[in-house]
Amino acid sequence: MATKHEQILNFIESLKVGNKISVRQIAKELNVSEGTAYRAIKEAENQGLVSTIERVGTIRIERKKKENFEHLTFAEIVSIVDGQVLGGREGLYKTLNKFVIGAMKLDAMMRYTEKDSLLIVGNRVEAHELAIKEGAAVLITGGFDTEDQVKRLADEKKLPIISTSYDTFTVAAMINRAIYDQLIKKEIVLIGDIFIPYDHTFFLTTKDQLTKWYEFNEQTTHSRYPVVDENNRVVGMVTSKDIIGKDKLVSIDKVMTKNPMTVLKETSLAYAAHMMVWEGIEIMPVVDNHNKLVGLISRQDVLKALQHIQRQPQVGETIDDIVTSRLEVLSDDNQNMVFRSDVTPQMTNQLGTLSYGVLVSFVTEAGGRVLRQYKKGDLVVENLSVYFLKPVQLESVLEIKSRILEVGRKSAKVDVEVFHDKDLVGKAVLMGQLIDR
């Protein structure tokens, strides 16, 4: 039987998109406490079922499709620009495809305004009305209002009219920034993007006998299965190692390994890959916030996804990419390496000098390279002490000397010095674990 929390989530999901909900309404309709209703609404917000907007309330929204991840809903626009909704509240869940800045004559403005777009314009009531008729939402800048007839038309067409106190340029910059942030997030692959869902997953329960493991093994040729309790919570994992020498009629909960490592759908692929490789885990259960099984992820799936990402075109270079591509090897004598790099505009702070973050990237990359050369392994930095002794100007040429201080079977310590015109400008000591390549 579903818990009260699950019943509320199912009820919210059944509501029509655009419906307004409240804690008091949910508590009254489903006969639950307001605390239970509040927690369920927050969970629904995390799942993308509802959105809470200041001065509007909480409304049922449409879950975004992955391919439209970079697009924003009008509800999100309200939050981004600290806006006030003047009309068309029922359309807040809709997604905008593009925005148009209304800084031109009316007829020219309408040529660019199309269905599901957003017209950003000042105190021009005629433009507000024409945009709504064309199927576009309107964002009025400068804190201006619009006429009642336009608000009624917006309600009828279910297209939001939003007012913000910011000017047009600032609003456009804020929306652009939000879209860019969404694109960056899109580049970060999560477990939820690649995991095997629950309905395609083989799992055991604590009440099953070991014979069930053998049935699954024969059917799937896999040897590892998660174990769940009566509430579908993950409580263990059974592998071929656990069943050696055990009677086939023994209960699964007597042979399973308890408290296995799990991941959430929101866990990044990179983190899961690190954990699975580092701990030697071949399969990991994917759970929700209540530790209930929602699917599985295998090491093979993770590695395939990482290889796929490496072949994809990226939105842009990261600082680490820029640093790596700029480092040129000057000399190499096994335990000591010397590099050279120039300081480009992307590496500077607002003062035009080398930023602290870029210096850290330089010393980390230089330290990692000398270890790869000497030990044929990668360094996972656990401790980093960096001293920035002098500012470095734009277009300066740096000389970076990397020297191994200590190296063991699983750990290493590296000293890195950064020079400009023979002056020591930065120094660092890196300590960390070695991973064989």
TrEMBL record:
Alphabetic keyword roster: CBS domain
Where in this chain does the record put each CBS domain? 195-254, 256-314
Q: Sorted alphabetically, which Gene3D superfamilies does this protein's record hold?
A: 3.90.1280.20, CBS-domain, Hotdog Thioesterase, HprK N-terminal domain-like, Winged helix-like DNA-binding domain superfamily/Winged helix DNA-binding domain
Q: Which InterPro entries match?
A: CBS_dom, CBS_dom_sf, Diverse_CBS-Domain, DRTGG, HotDog_dom_sf, Ser_kin/Pase_Hpr-like_N_sf, Thioestr_dom, WH-like_DNA-bd_sf
Q: Name one Pfam family in it.
A: HTH_24
Key word Repeat present: no
Record-linked PANTHER family: CBS DOMAIN-CONTAINING PROTEIN, CBS DOMAIN-CONTAINING PROTEIN CBSX3, MITOCHONDRIAL
Name the chain's protein: DRTGG domain-containing protein
The organism is Aquibacillus koreensis
Native organism taxonomy: Bacteria, Bacillati, Bacillota, Bacilli, Bacillales
